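B., you asked whether I could sanity-check this one before it goes into the benchmark set. Here's the sequence:
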Amino acid sequence: MKKSDDGAPVAVGKAYEFVLWLLPKVESFPRAHRFTVGERLTTHGLDLLTSLVEAGYAREKAGLLDQASRKVNSTRYLLRLAKDLKLMSIDAYAFSAEKLDEIGRMVGGWSKAAAKS
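And here's what the prediction gave me:
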């Protein structure tokens, strides 16, 4: 698995950057949706990041990487819902979808590499 300068898998860094971008976006959601869709989005993003960090240290990575993969997919749907409810712009949605696709590919690659070892 490709690692960054600090030794953490690159997927962890990408997930961190995604969550760092996501949190202020959710804060700008209207009050009516901030505590429903927004809170769920925040939780899923943080859970994704946490799963990847834990997988970086775990001997048995498969379960954590599977959990991270599921969080990527559910976060995609929550972002789509936010876009359809007009809680975020089309550009913000496109940016987030691109970042999640990248993270998803990395998690998939990491899963395959972990299964071989």
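One thing to flag: The longest helix spans residues 31-57. Otherwise nothing jumped out at me.
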